[in-house]
User: Fold this.
Amino acid sequence: VLTVFVVYDLPGRDCHALASNGELLANDGDLARYKSEYIDVIEGHLKTYKSQPVVLIVEPDSLANLVTNLESTPACRDSEKYYLEGHAYLIKKFGVLPHVAMYLDIGHAFWLGWDDNREKAGKVYAKVISSGSPGKVRGFTDNVSNYTPWEDPTLSRGPDTEWNPCPDEKRYLEAMHKDFKAAGIESVYFVSDTSRNGKKVDRKHPGEWCNQTGVGVGARPQASPVSGMDYLDAFYWIKPLGESDGTSDESAARFDGYCGHETAMKPAPEAGQWFQKHFEQGIKNANPPL
Assistant:
């Protein structure tokens, strides 16, 4: 049995969005809480069960924001220090445990897929991993909580994809593997989230991320699922189907405009709460069928 957990509580969490902001703010006091009340507690439990193999999916939507959103989003600039120090701390803590494999989040194909973003990402992630020495990182996870198909032969680099050379997750990971190796990262393996990408959703732009209509469960969780991609450790359902991406209530404190867009299913509850209608549609549209 392999146990999988998502580590997700950085100070200033999800700095470029509003719907899934966390309990901790981007300040020194909350960074201290993150270390002592969250990471140290998890470390204690991991050390208790040394015979149990564990995978940690680390801090979705964090480091990718440092690649693309520092200049455009003040909240991300405010969070940068805490994202970097938080990662260094957790890598030092968890990365020395032989029964624990960590995967850092790298967003998805329509976030970091462009050549300049991937090149910058290589530098950012290499620096982060080095900062956690002697802790080790197994690899990276993509498409967490997103909808980008694993393969989409209808798309290519052109105006429809804003000239993105990696318009699906397979091509994205193929490119990222090369770029991260070129950046000096030694261990480059991937776990790809297929919980909601079995069917192309109705979104009109790949940047649409909130409760998309047309959702369908994707490929079953499986180790080494693709022949010829020995660096793809697994497909896995990381984001639970049926867990809301964010509320559609415009009066709510955590309302994000993306959750009010045309292709976002409504009415939707707060992020993390159960969304039965979205769940049912995902089951109905599952590919392969459930």
The longest strand covers residues 100-105. The mean pLDDT is 96. The CA atoms of residues 176 and 269 lie 34 Å apart. The two ends are 23 Å apart (CA to CA).
